[in-house]
Amino acid sequence: MTAPWVRRILPQVALGALLAQPALAEEGSKGASEGSAAAAKKAAPKKSPAGSPALPLVARGDAQMMARDLRGACASYQEASALDPRSPTPLLRLTECSLALGELDEALRSSELAVRVSPPEGRARLAALARQAAVFEARGDLDKALSVYERISAEVPQVTKTEDRVLFDKIARERARAIETRKKELEASARIRARVEQELKDAAPKSGGKA
To answer: pLDDT of 129-160, one tens digit each?
Structure first.
């Protein structure tokens, strides 16, 4: 299971939809125009075969996540990714698992790899970007997170399925608004802190004066 603080980063409805798709990373760009489909086929890594040896390991990792064996789950996803490095699925799961453990460097690494190997114009790429943005939020890199959410919004129109466009557009818009609000709160807090520190400094006795 994903830690509660991770669920606050991605809206629960969106996170649940992402995690409920074991094979979401295998979706490509069905329904795209002939020209863009040809370009995607040329540029994207080949899809994993249906009988990929990684799938049982992903399933094992999912079961371990449900049992709250996060270390075991991460190990299973890492093993699955090593067996099938062209599939984003183990990397997407590894990002979630690493986030739940608070291992943000590993979460960022796996999310970046997931973005790199995900086919363009498909759900997997947007899922990878959403996870990457969540990692940046967890690290406190709000500007980077906002940039990724804006990237999702820019890429949403290219996705074939309507429900995927709606889902990821909702994620990107809601999280971008939340980040902007958080940034304003932090700026206001910093101004208050600076004013209080200045007032304390001004009120402090001056050294070196006459006795």
So the answer is: 999 999 999 999 999 999 999 999 999 988 87
pTM of the predicted model, to two decimals?
0.70
Structure-token pair, residue 200:
């304390």
User: Using alpha carbons only, what angle is made at residue 182 by residues 181 and 188, rounded to the nearest 5 degrees?
Assistant: 90
* Residue 151 structural domain: 4-203
- Kindly state whether residue 211 falls inside one of the protein's structural domains: no
Between CA 156 and CA 126 the distance in angstroms is: 8
Q: In degrees to the nearest 10, what's the CA dihedral of 157, 160, 165, 166? A: 130
**Torsions phi, psi for 145 (to 5 deg):** -60, -45
Residue 135, in any domain of the structure = yes
Q: Is the pLDDT reported for residue 114 higher than 80?
A: yes
Secondary structure, 3-state, 180-191: HHHHHHHHHHHH
Q: What is the 3-state secondary structure (H, E, C) of 113-130?
A: HHHHHCCCCCHHHHHHHH
Region 176-205 average pLDDT: 90
DSSP state of 26: G
Give me the CATH number covering residue 99.
1.25.40.10
- Residue 165: inside a domain, yes or no? yes
The CA–CA distances, whole Å, from 116 to 12, 104, 211 equal 25, 18, 70
CA gap 182, 47 in Å, rounded: 39
What's the domain count of the chain? 1
pLDDT attached to residue 46: 40
